[in-house]
Amino acid sequence: MSIVGTLIRIALTRLETFPGMPVFSLVYAQWVGCLIIGIVAKNKSHLFSWYYPLHPGISTGLCGSITTFSSWQLGIFKEFANYDANPHTRGKNVLAALSVFLVTLAMSLNGLTVGHHIGEITEPKDTRVEHKIIPRGFSIRYMTTVDYITIVLGIVSWLAVIFAAIFGKGQKDLAFACVFAPVGALTRWYLSFYNGKLPHFPIGTFSANIFGTAVLAALTLIQSGVYVIPIGCDVIQASIAATHCDPGQIFKSDDGCNTCLCPESGLKFGAGCTRMFCFDSSKCTPGESFTAKDGCNTCTCPDSGSKEDNAACTAMACGPIDSGNQCDPGSIFTAADDCNICKCPPSGKKDAAPCTLKACPPPDDPSNSCTPRDSFVASDGCNTCRCPDSGLKTDAPCTKMGCAVNNETCTPGTSFLAADNCNECSCPSSGLKRDAACTLKECSPSANEDMCTPGSSFTALDGCNTCTCPESGIMSQAACTVTECDPTATIGHCTPGESFTAKDGCNTCTCPESGFKVDAGCTRKACPPVEDNNQCTPGESFPADDGCNSCSCPDSGNKSEAACTSKSCAPVEKCTPGESFSADDGCNSCSCPDSGIKSEAGCTLKACP
């Protein structure tokens, strides 16, 4: 059956192949094969009852050899590639390939439908079918005479075409096609057993078709050689030109306006390009005027609407061009950012030069500098920051008070009193007081300033140095020692991000990334005054805690460092601060002081009996 099907397909193809044929010849073989399949599918049961191998022989052997999926696919690809080198454009290649695909598919479906209708007409009226019991596999025991005759005819037919291919002097292509026809039919039949693996897709038949297509493609290339058409070369060349360039070469960017400098890698995507704002400078409105390329003369747009089409221009003698924008074509110069480099374009204009696009470090900003460990007012005008070791204000830890947004306005150019009620400010052009420039006169201390007693000593913020309170009584103006403190001291350490109570026992600080409390930003709430019982005036005497001995205040002003007398004193009577108790006279009452020492208590002075 497969040999007969192959002969039918070749005969139909040769019959319909002639110069000027209206449609490709393969479509007729596809139509005839599908027509027979439609008839066989409708009479499937009757074919099985007549002779069981007849159905697979006709459907797989005969029709499978008349129709050809692989030749159909080869025809589509040949049209895509213009294999016959027909004189038409590339777009016509696509249309031709679509025509082969759609026409063949439509004719195949048409043949299948027509065959189905013919099968309904030719179907025997007696629909009773006697099913025969047949073996599941090949067995000589169950073979009939018809089986033997069929096998003999098949072997003889195959040997005949083999000898014809070997010893025949002509039509060798026809003979070889018949030689391989049974091999293809058996391969399709065995692979069809896998169609049941997927419920909605004939995977076996599909695999047979793909395998046949691959074999046909390989044999076609072997027979005719690898055919490289111009479109392939054009695509490759266009791809290379679109992504590659010669190092140092100047080329136009994709916008057609800016220019780029090809890098050493030779890849366009790594090139440095100018960043001019571009528009279609070659177009204009007919009759309107535009500036000539020299930036001086004026031209009138021609009717074509293109500036390049002989526009009429004035011929004034123009002044010299600004030399600051000029460079020697091909020379290298530093960009305005003092970091990237540029190559002068053929026009000799720096603003059209392609430059590298390196990520450059930000320029030094004097306004962002500060002296390490100095304090300064934050940008919100409310919080206070401490300058870090880097000397950059942007790295400084600051207090995080909830400050009111100062959106107060003023009349630009007028003066107003600063928040300290001392200095004067000049209203800026923005009309916002927070942006104003103010005088820096030395004013009397504000109520919000941290105050101290002039001449007294106190511990600096670093917990190590000692400061002497100035005559102004403002702590921030105090002169302090500059002893090198131990940064690893436990007292100065904290966990970054955690909060801790400030030394005043009132404000709260946030530990900075450095982990040193001295660098922490703290709130600046106005706290109630705290009496420091551990401070004294250097050189003065004060009672010891036992209420008996006396001490002399040291130069540090810390009572805990004072030298005291060591007299043998009577036991000190204690009381609970704030509570009342009876005086020794049994008449008056006393109030226990904060020290908890009864002898320091204040008592009533009633006249007792």
Automatic annotation (TrEMBL):
Residues annotated as transmembrane: 20-41, 53-74, 94-115, 146-168, 174-191, 203-229
Broad class of where this protein is predominantly found: membrane
Reaction it catalyzes: fluoride(in) = fluoride(out)
Location of the Pacifastin domain: 281-321, 324-363, 367-406, 407-446, 449-488, 491-530, 572-609
Membrane topology: Multi-pass membrane protein
An annotated GO cellular component: plasma membrane
Localization annotation: Cell membrane; Secreted
GO molecular function terms listed in the Swiss-Prot or TrEMBL record: fluoride transmembrane transporter activity; peptidase inhibitor activity
Domain of life assignment: Eukaryota
Keywords carried by this UniProt record: Cell membrane, Disulfide bond, Membrane, Secreted, Transmembrane, Transmembrane helix
InterPro entries xref list: FluC (IPR003691), Pacifastin_dom (IPR008037), Pacifastin_dom_sf (IPR036201)
Family label: Belongs to the fluoride channel Fluc/FEX (TC 1.A.43) family.
Role, per record: Fluoride channel required for the rapid expulsion of cytoplasmic fluoride.
PANTHER family tied to this protein: FLUORIDE EXPORT PROTEIN 1-RELATED
Annotated protein name in UniProt: Pacifastin domain-containing protein
Source species: Thamnidium elegans
